[in-house]
Amino acid sequence: MALQPVTTCAPDFVPAKITDEEGGAMLRAVLNLFGKWDITDEEAAVLLDLPVRTYRRWKAGQPGRINRDMKARLSNLLGVHKALRIIFSEPDRTYGWIKARNTAFGDRSALDIMLGGDLTDLMRVRRYVDAERGAW
Question: Are 100 and 109 in contact (CB under 8 A)?
Answer without folding.
Answer: yes
